[in-house]
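The instructor's notes for this session suggest beginning with a concrete chain rather than abstract definitions. Hand out the sequence below and ask the class to guess, before any prediction is shown, which regions might be ordered.
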Amino acid sequence: MNERLMDFLWKSEVERLPESKKRLYEFMIEAEDALAEEAVSADEFCQLLLENSPVHLAMNYFGLPYDDIVHTLMKTEEELHTKINLRLKKVKWIDFTGFSEAKTGDNRKNQLFLFMY
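After discussion, reveal the predicted structure:
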Protein backbone atom coordinates (compact mmCIF):
# COMPACT_ATOMS: atom_id res chain seq x y z
CA MET A 1 0.00 0.00 0.00
CA ASN A 2 1.13 3.52 -0.77
CA GLU A 3 2.93 5.07 2.23
CA ARG A 4 1.49 8.52 1.52
CA LEU A 5 -2.02 7.12 1.44
CA MET A 6 -1.52 5.32 4.75
CA ASP A 7 -0.07 8.46 6.33
CA PHE A 8 -3.02 10.51 5.08
CA LEU A 9 -5.59 8.02 6.36
CA TRP A 10 -3.84 7.70 9.71
CA LYS A 11 -3.68 11.47 10.26
CA SER A 12 -7.26 11.84 9.10
CA GLU A 13 -8.51 9.26 11.58
CA VAL A 14 -6.45 10.74 14.43
CA GLU A 15 -8.11 14.10 13.74
CA ARG A 16 -11.52 12.45 14.10
CA LEU A 17 -10.78 11.04 17.56
CA PRO A 18 -12.52 12.55 20.59
CA GLU A 19 -10.36 15.37 21.96
CA SER A 20 -9.17 13.53 25.08
CA LYS A 21 -8.04 10.45 23.11
CA LYS A 22 -6.48 12.61 20.43
CA ARG A 23 -4.47 14.66 22.93
CA LEU A 24 -3.13 11.55 24.69
CA TYR A 25 -2.35 9.76 21.42
CA GLU A 26 -0.56 12.76 19.91
CA PHE A 27 1.36 13.34 23.15
CA MET A 28 2.65 9.77 23.05
CA ILE A 29 3.54 9.86 19.36
CA GLU A 30 5.42 13.15 19.78
CA ALA A 31 7.31 11.80 22.81
CA GLU A 32 8.29 8.63 20.94
CA ASP A 33 9.27 10.60 17.82
CA ALA A 34 11.49 12.89 19.90
CA LEU A 35 13.30 9.86 21.31
CA ALA A 36 13.61 8.32 17.85
CA GLU A 37 15.18 11.54 16.54
CA GLU A 38 17.67 11.51 19.39
CA ALA A 39 18.68 7.87 18.93
CA VAL A 40 21.33 6.80 16.44
CA SER A 41 20.38 3.11 16.47
CA ALA A 42 17.45 0.86 17.28
CA ASP A 43 19.22 -0.32 20.44
CA GLU A 44 19.73 3.24 21.61
CA PHE A 45 16.08 4.02 20.90
CA CYS A 46 15.00 1.08 23.08
CA GLN A 47 17.33 2.28 25.83
CA LEU A 48 15.92 5.80 25.60
CA LEU A 49 12.39 4.41 25.81
CA LEU A 50 13.31 2.63 29.02
CA GLU A 51 15.03 5.67 30.52
CA ASN A 52 12.46 8.28 29.38
CA SER A 53 9.23 6.31 29.20
CA PRO A 54 6.59 8.22 27.22
CA VAL A 55 3.95 6.46 29.35
CA HIS A 56 5.45 7.90 32.52
CA LEU A 57 5.64 11.33 30.90
CA ALA A 58 1.95 11.02 29.99
CA MET A 59 1.10 9.91 33.52
CA ASN A 60 2.68 13.08 34.90
CA TYR A 61 1.25 15.34 32.21
CA PHE A 62 -2.33 14.03 32.25
CA GLY A 63 -2.45 12.96 35.89
CA LEU A 64 -3.69 9.48 34.99
CA PRO A 65 -2.58 6.09 36.33
CA TYR A 66 -0.35 3.81 34.26
CA ASP A 67 -3.11 1.30 33.51
CA ASP A 68 -5.46 4.00 32.22
CA ILE A 69 -2.81 5.41 29.89
CA VAL A 70 -1.86 2.02 28.47
CA HIS A 71 -5.47 0.83 28.15
CA THR A 72 -6.55 4.03 26.41
CA LEU A 73 -3.62 3.89 23.99
CA MET A 74 -4.24 0.25 23.13
CA LYS A 75 -7.95 0.87 22.54
CA THR A 76 -7.19 3.99 20.49
CA GLU A 77 -4.71 2.18 18.24
CA GLU A 78 -7.15 -0.70 17.80
CA GLU A 79 -9.87 1.78 16.87
CA LEU A 80 -7.57 3.57 14.41
CA HIS A 81 -6.53 0.31 12.72
CA THR A 82 -10.15 -0.78 12.36
CA LYS A 83 -11.29 2.52 10.87
CA ILE A 84 -8.32 2.73 8.50
CA ASN A 85 -8.87 -0.82 7.27
CA LEU A 86 -12.51 0.01 6.56
CA ARG A 87 -11.49 3.10 4.63
CA LEU A 88 -8.84 1.18 2.70
CA LYS A 89 -11.53 -1.15 1.42
CA LYS A 90 -13.35 1.87 -0.02
CA VAL A 91 -10.34 3.57 -1.59
CA LYS A 92 -10.12 3.55 -5.33
CA TRP A 93 -7.27 4.97 -7.40
CA ILE A 94 -8.10 5.84 -10.98
CA ASP A 95 -5.17 6.45 -13.31
CA PHE A 96 -6.07 9.20 -15.79
CA THR A 97 -2.57 9.35 -17.28
CA GLY A 98 -3.76 8.31 -20.72
CA PHE A 99 -6.34 11.10 -20.76
CA SER A 100 -3.83 13.86 -20.08
CA GLU A 101 -2.65 15.70 -23.19
CA ALA A 102 -0.32 18.04 -21.35
CA LYS A 103 3.41 17.48 -21.53
CA THR A 104 6.03 18.44 -19.00
CA GLY A 105 9.15 20.37 -19.86
CA ASP A 106 11.19 17.18 -20.31
CA ASN A 107 8.66 15.59 -22.71
CA ARG A 108 7.24 13.15 -20.18
CA LYS A 109 3.49 12.83 -19.85
CA ASN A 110 1.86 14.21 -16.74
CA GLN A 111 0.19 11.68 -14.52
CA LEU A 112 -3.11 12.41 -12.91
CA PHE A 113 -4.60 10.25 -10.19
CA LEU A 114 -7.98 10.77 -8.67
CA PHE A 115 -8.34 9.75 -5.04
CA MET A 116 -11.84 8.87 -3.94
CA TYR A 117 -13.05 7.54 -0.63
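Then share the key points. The first helix runs from residue 3 to 15. Residues 28 and 58 are 7 Å apart (CA to CA).
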